[in-house]
Specification:
The protein is mainly β. The strands form ten sheets. The chain has a 22-stranded antiparallel barrel. Strands 10-15-16-13-14 form a five-stranded mixed beta sheet. Strand 24 and strand 25 form a beta hairpin.
């Protein structure tokens, strides 16, 4: 019986095995192995670590570092492919076993993580005004600094650069916040620093621009001018990746239309003859083109190499860069060498990392302003003249009555070099105390070694120049910044409630010290004729030095609340204490709050056209203490002496030379912002709009006072003025992909109106140059005499009378300018000046577009400005004939035979027709400029595999090649560092036409 049972069990066991085998075979036949590659639609590059999931199952995988994948799936099942920053795609499995999938970039990228200061947020949950800039938009341009690359890409951000090698662009976020040129705060990998000319833009991974007070309030007293957060590149898990790029660019300098000797002598003689003054004995045998002598073709070289990779618990990124710029002006160049190492690692609940950058930059600077000299000097002056000390040509009494400076002489007789060696970085560590609680410590350190070297050799460069000994001046300085930060972050979800709380404490210490020395009568090497450039080879030594210290300590907190992805709330508080203020005013509090309502997630909202709609509102207060380290203390001069007693004995003395203000306090910016974010057509069409009102109170500024008060140490600082800005920003973008063709375009619009509410200190207005800053108006309005055409005959002069019948300009002659007698007092004086225009544009715009087809891509960037009135300093020099300079070619001055012209008669020795304080030299500053245009080609994969590369790209681009403007100067996009004379263009270095060729490859 037992044997029979065992036989039955064995039969059933074998039967079970048989049916199990059949089932396995059937199941195996239903599943197939799918292989393929996930690529980016925009450039065809493989996407590493993209997720592939069989829909409604737990079966999934990820792509390798080239974008390749394999997965088992049944016929008819759906593969779901996701990757951050790209639109999710679903593909149904059919009989094909190889499926290559292209992912379109998600312009909205709602789940994109945005760095917001001491933490991060999902982009969809932002309640403040934050703009995100793609690093490649900056890196494809040929720029020295990151700020230059932002131009035209961000609403509310105004950038003005120039073509001088090593020149740093000025950047202004949402208009004028105070009465100083204060750049925004830069935060690089958590370090409070700068992104100036010794920072390598190729290292940038992401850029966030915090524009409103609620977004920037976490940085408190240093955020009034906006905040730019930069994250540099990090390594990713996988084998080491090597990327190399090379870009070579050629730049050209625009030129003025100036007269040559024949035309110049004709008008110069005419001006002297009209003044009944003996003519100059011009050297008509010389015909110097000073612009040709001064300007040349510039060369820019940008070489970059990076190495990155990592494993499961650590990553690394290393880069090296050389940037060289041989300027378009003689004796100007800039070069930078930089290195970076970023690494991080994780072990259990601990994480640690560092970001370290080392750079050395060197600038050869041209003394004087060669742009001005190019039109101040006559074409009849030779470049070289052995009769002059040093052997260079310049003005000569009775032959060339000009005080223009010979730039060739300056380039040879003066040598100025600035060098900066900088080390900066941070070391951070994190401890995950619980799944919802994290502690982070960040130590930032930055030090720079600055070297300034100036040599003055024997020789002259201008008329009537006194003899001066040769000398050398050297400055050596060192700065050091230490930053200590401790933050604790709580983040947890409770059902529909998502709460994040951040608290922290920071301390920053800044030190700067400098020593300097000068020696004269330098020795010259008799064999080479070169000057020895060391301090010990001279006499009459002068030495000195100083040291500055400052400290800032802060406490901060932030609350982020999200209910059901519909209602958003963000509150920030920061308290700062600075050593720049007295104990009574040391501390300042800077709060902010913002709200967001995602209407598109409400149950009542039904729209197939709109897929995302969010309203935002915020209010915040920011501070600024942009003053010197010791402004609240008295400045004492200890080098004085006094004679006392019957014996007239000389005693040392000390005296206060600068007024002190112990009541100095933080200036405070109060800003309200209302915004809307809108996504349509599956987020292919995006719109962001913001309206803001910003009011800065207790503005810190030093208004000039009479030196007869005893003040001899600069204008004393006080909390005086109040400045207000109102503005509107609009950003509209669209993207579309059709098979292998993709297209994107965006337009941004910025309108900012600034107003000086009050000057304070009992003042109502301030005049600087040709500008008036008056309460109720914008800062630096044009305040000049008004012109009213030309007198055509003596009768018109006699008939030009005031209401009392007095002849207003009795000394005028036919062909002279008629000025308006605004106050009707019968004469032209400064009392007749009036506000006639504004240097601030009514609005600015940017247009960006790009397209790609298979391996080819194209992109361009236009910028435009409208409504600004600017002062043409070039014309104020070359269109006046009372002084001696060159003239614009083609002018038609008034003569009895040529009365139909707007150019007055030319006459030497009188300012009647040459007044620089009139509206004659004001012009429209409107312009439209093609800032960048570029073409690229990515080699196809079959070629790359043959040469062992993972990617290779070639590019051609051009910058500033088309400018549409009526402005007669070199460049309507000039910059002026004086807030009150923002619209004055006197020798500003223009933006250059630049043509670039680049090669990039990786393996």
């Amino acid at each position: 019986m037992k044997t029979k049972i065992n036989q039955i069990l064995k039969q059933r066991y074998y039967l079970l095995l048989f049916f199990s085998f059949l089932l396995q075979q059937s199941y195996a036949q239903e599943q197939i192995k799918i292989t393929g590659k996930i690529t980016a639609a925009v450039n065809g590059d493989g996407i590493p670590l993209a997720n592939i999931l069989v829909k409604n199952t737990s079966n999934g995988t990820a792509t390798d570092f080239d974008g390749n994948f394999s997965i088992m799936a049944k016929l008819g099942q759906v593969l779901v492919i996701t990757y951050q920053g790209y639109k999710t795609k679903e593909v149904t499995v059919n009989k094909e076993t190889v499926i290559n999938i292209s992912l379109a970039e998600d312009i909205l990228a709602l789940n994109e993580i945005v760095i917001v200061g001491y933490g991060s947020q999902e982009k969809k949950n932002l309640t403040g005004a934050i703009s995100i800039v793609k690093a490649d938009e900056i890196q494809k341009r040929q720029v020295t600094t990151m700020a230059e690359g932002l131009q035209g890409l961000v609403t509310g951000v105004k950038v003005r650069g120039g073509g001088r090698p090593g020149q740093e662009a000025s950047i202004e976020i949402r208009g004028l916040k105070n009465l100083q040129n204060a750049n925004p705060l830069y935060v690089v990998d958590g370090l409070i620093t700068t992104a100036n000319r010794d920072f390598n833009p190729n290292d940038i991974e992401t850029i966030q621009v915090l524009k409103d007070a609620s977004a920037a309030a976490i940085y408190g007293s240093r955020a009034a001018n906006g905040v730019i957060i930069i994250t540099t590149k990090k390594g990713k898990k996988g084998p080491m990746k090597i990327e190399v790029s090379s870009k070579t660019s050629f730049s050209t300098m625009p030129k003025y239309d100036l007269m040559r000797t024949e035309e110049f002598s004709k008008f110069n003689f005419q001006a002297y003859d009209n003044a009944v003054i003996p003519r100059q004995n011009l050297n008509l045998g010389v015909n110097t083109d000073w612009q040709k002598e001064i300007f040349k073709q510039g060369l820019l070289q940008d070489y970059n190499a990076s190495f990155s990779g990592g494993g499961d618990n650590s990553t690394f990124f290393m880069s090296a860069n050389y940037f060289g710029n041989e300027g378009t002006v003689i004796s100007t160049d800039f070069n930078r060498v930089s290195f970076r190492v970023n690494s991080s690692g994780t072990k259990g609940i601990f994480s640690i990392g560092e970001n370290l950058a080392i750079s050395n930059s060197r600038t050869d600077e041209m003394s004087g302003n060669p742009i001005i000299d190019s039109y101040r000097l006559f074409p009849t002056i030779p470049v070289y003249d052995e009769a002059n000390p040093g052997g260079f040509g310049y003005g000569k009494q009775g032959v060339a009555n000009t005080f223009g400076t010979n730039p060739i002489a300056l380039a040879n007789l003066l040598d100025t070099k600035n060098e900066n060696f900088r080390i900066r970085g941070n070391l951070w560590s994190e401890v995950k105390l619980a799944s919802f609680l994290k502690y982070r410590f960040n130590f930032g350190y930055e030090t720079s070694f600055d070297s300034y070297n100036f040599i003055r050799k024997l020789g002259n460069w201008t008329l009537n120049q006194p003899y001066e000994q040769s000398f050398i001046n050297q400055n050596k300085g060192r700065s050091e910044t230490k930053l200590f930060e401790n933050t604790l972050t709580f983040k947890k979800e409770f059902g529909k409630h998502d709460i994040t709380v951040l608290v922290g404490q920071t301390f920053q210490k800044d030190n700067y010290e400098q020593i300097y020395g000068t020696k004269r009568n330098l020795l010259v090497n008799p064999s080479t004729g070169q000057y020895f450039d060391v301090l010990n080879l001279g006499d009459q030594a002068e030495v000195g030095g100083f040291r500055n210290e400052a400290a800032l300590t802060s406490y901060l907190g932030r609350l982020e609340y999200n209910y059901d992805d519909r209602y958003l709330f963000n509150a920030v508080f920061r308290r700062d204490g600075s050593s720049k203020f007295s104990d009574a005013n040391k501390w300042g509090n800077f709060p902010s709050a913002s709200l967001g309502w995602r209407i598109s997630n409400e149950s009542f909202f039904k729209s197939e056209f709109i897929n995302d709609l969010k309203l935002r509102a915020s209010y915040g207060e920011l501070g600024s203490g942009n003053i010197g380290n010791y402004e609240y203390q008295g400045f004492i001069n200890t080098f004085g002496a006094i004679v006392l007693g019957d014996g007239q004995t000389l005693y040392p003395s000390a005296t206060q030379v600068r007024l002190a203000n112990a009541e100095l306090r933080w200036e405070k910016l109060k800003q309200t912002n209302i915004g809307v974010d809108l996504g349509m057509l599956d987020s292919s069409l995006r719109l962001t709009a913001d309206y803001f009102i910003a009011r800065t109170e207790d503005v810190l500024f030093g208004f000039p006072i009479l030196m007869t008060t005893g003040n001899d140490g600069g204008n004393p600082i006080s909390n005086a003025a109040t400045v207000e800005n109102k503005g509107f920003e609009l950003d509209l973008s669209y993207s579309k992909k059709i098979n292998d063709f993709s297209f994107n375009a965006s337009i941004n619009f910025t309108k900012v109106d600034n107003k000086l509410v009050s000057l304070g200190n009992g003042q109502n207005e301030s005049i600087q140059g040709n500008t008036m800053t008056r309460a109720g108006n914008a800062v630096g309005m044009w305040y000049v005499l008004k012109t009213d055409g030309l007198f055509q005959n003596q009768q018109e002069i006699q008939n030009y009378v005031n209401s009392a019948g007095a002849i207003i300009m009795p000394n005028a002659l036919p062909g002279d300018i008629r000025f308006k007698d605004v106050n009707d007092d019968g004469e032209i004086t400064n009392e007749d000046k009036d506000i006639v225009g504004s240097p601030w544009p009514e609005f600015e715009m940017g247009f960006n577009a790009g397209a790609s087809y298979k391996g080819f891509d194209f992109s361009m960037n236009w910028i435009g400005s409208h409504g600004a009135t600017v002062y043409n300093g070039f014309r104020s020099t070359v269109d006046r004939f009372d002084d001696d300079s060159n003239y614009r070619t083609g002018i038609q001055p008034w003569t009895p035979e040529n009365p139909n012209t707007d150019f007055p008669r030319i006459v030497k020795g009188t300012t009647l027709n040459a007044r620089g304080d009139s509206d004659r030299f004001l012009e429209s500053g409107d312009f439209i400029r093609l800032k960048y245009i570029g073409f690229g080609y990515n080699l196809p994969e079959n070629i790359l595999q043959k040469v062992g590369l993972t990617s290779a790209r070639f590019s051609l681009s051009a910058q500033n090649v088309i400018t549409i403007t009526k402005y007669l100067g070199l460049d309507p996009e000039f910059s002026n560092g004086n807030i009150f004379e923002r619209g004055v263009d006197v020798g500003s270095f223009p933006n250059l036409k630049t043509y670039s060729f680049g090669v990039e490859f990786s393996f």
